[in-house]
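[recover] target loaded
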């Protein structure tokens, strides 16, 4: 396979790349899916979805890293193409752990259950620690989101408490969030031992 363009990243089965115009329609469908957005306050309309993609791509252009569009390129997969996003972002709200850099992902329902979020997350962490030289990276989600919490554990991230998300009103069922963290030292230790998290190599 040819090398991806500068700023893009290829893993065994995925391409993490800059956003394209043709990503916007499938991204809007993803963001309108109630199952995908179950642990977010509400699904997104097309305008908000497009704005999110624009912010994500602007972040990559500005920093050299960000929330990349995820494309499945595995010839052995049942389905290929744009699957959502994964990567690094800077949260825009204030909390006891900000400012910080977060690793996150959001994939279409058809892309669940294949380990894509973990694979993309591992590459994002490599960029964070090797290329961006960050000291640590966090990840967080609403407490009921067991799928994303499992990905955080597979990435080797360590639980670091809970917090009330300030963007959600008191009493909202998703206001309570769990925080995970991974330091560069711990990440290096996992790499040197050949492990990428407590459940590796699966």
């Amino acid at each position: 396979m040819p090398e991806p363009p500068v700023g893009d990243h290829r893993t065994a089965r995925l391409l993490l790349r800059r956003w394209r115009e043709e990503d916007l329609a499938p991204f809007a469908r993803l963001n309108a899916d109630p199952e995908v957005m179950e642990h977010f306050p509400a699904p997104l309309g097309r305008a908000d979805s497009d704005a999110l993609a624009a912010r994500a791509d602007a972040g990559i252009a500005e920093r050299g890293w960000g929330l990349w569009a995820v494309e499945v390129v595995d010839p052995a997969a049942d389905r290929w193409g744009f699957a959502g996003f994964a990567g690094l972002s800077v949260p825009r709200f204030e909390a006891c752990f900000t400012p910080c850099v977060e690793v996150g992902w959001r994939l279409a329902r058809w892309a669940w259950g294949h380990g894509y979020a973990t694979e993309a997350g591992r590459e994002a962490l490599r960029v964070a620690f090797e290329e961006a030289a960050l000291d640590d990276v966090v990840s967080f989600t609403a407490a009921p989101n067991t799928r994303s919490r499992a990905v955080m554990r597979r990435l080797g991230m360590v639980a670091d408490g809970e917090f009330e998300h300030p963007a959600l009103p008191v009493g909202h069922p998703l206001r309570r969030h769990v925080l995970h963290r991974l330091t560069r030292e711990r990440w290096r230790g996992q790499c040197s031992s050949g492990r990428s998290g407590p459940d590796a190599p699966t």
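[recover] notes: The chain has a mean pLDDT of 92.
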